[in-house]
Amino acid sequence: MQWQQDDIKKYVQAKEYIDTIIMPLQPFHLTKDEKIAQTSYENEILTIFSNELEKELSGRTMRIPSYTYVRSADKEKEIERMKTWVTDIQEQPFEHLFFPTFDMTWKKHEINLPGNLIWLPVTQVEEIQSKEFKKWIHENVLQVSELIRSYW
Amino acid sequence: MSDKKKQVTRRQFLNYTLTGVGGFMAAGLLMSPLRMAIDPVLQPSGDGDYANVGLAVDDITKDPQPVEWEIEQVDAWYKSDVTQKAFVFKDDKDEIVALSPKCTHLGCMVSWEGSESHPDQFYCPCHDGRFTKDGTNIEGTPPTEPLHEYEHKVEDGMLFLGKAYPRGEA
Fold this sequence. Notes:
The complex is a heterodimer.
Chain A lengths: L4 H9 L6 E3 L2 E4 L4 H24 L4 E3 L3 E4 L4 H15 L6 E6 L14 E4 L11 H19 L3
Parallel strand pairs in A: 1-3, 1-5, 2-4, 5-6
Helix pairs in contact in A: 2-4
Chain B lengths: L1 H5 L3 H33 L2 H4 L2 E6 L8 E10 L4 E12 L5 E4 L11 E2 L8 E4 L4 E4 L16 E7 L2 E8 L5
Antiparallel strand pairs in B: 1-9, 2-3, 3-4, 5-6, 6-7, 8-9
InterPro entries (chain A): DUF2487 (IPR019615)
Pfam families (chain A): DUF2487
Protein name (chain A): DUF2487 family protein
């Protein structure tokens, strides 16, 4: 399910079946010219990845809007803010929360996160329409969905 | 300037005018039959709804195999390439069957023999939904209708798939 009108209407009818949240963690910044392109690229492909992951497991997962934060922000403070999202999410019967991200700085704070971090190493491709990139997405979606299923 | 204008004689003027008007009339008359004659060329849409999935008919076996292909999908705001998936096999009557892997319960992707304890079945990992090989939902599992089936046709030995429709309504 996506956090979109049509899917949410279905969700409300069938919420006992949907117990897993996919919440991508996406950094944002416009400082440091030399890094903006890379961060925006990562943002783009994490969005594609998360949507494809949702498609694979759409009957039991909800892909909510990405948790977006300023790249340089203090992670512990961000975790406090993230917890307010999670408190809201848990008003509904969600049991599993997964946070896919390319931002490796979360790894050190993983233990304090209110859900399961899925840190993926980023892949560099010239063209996101390329076969190579599609294959990368496909393989990662399969592996990560297997990981998610192991929690069910 | 006025000298030049006088160089056009009455005969020439009439000639130009008639040729011009006649030409338009002829073109107008020719347009419809011409358009009809080449219409099949302009409209591949009969085929457009079917996509070559890159599988030769000879390679289709009794075992469901996954195929993927891309179609261009246009919704109100975006045009995007969407990956379509199907499981293709030949049934006992040697007929080609192409089933959509989208679970009819809530839309997860099923896989053939995805559960070790249920061989010869499609299995949905989300809520343990199961379907027999012909796509029929197994009672006692969450799905309430069979897997959808793609329209298919064969051209030059290659498999083409169209739209998926609910079984029983086709």
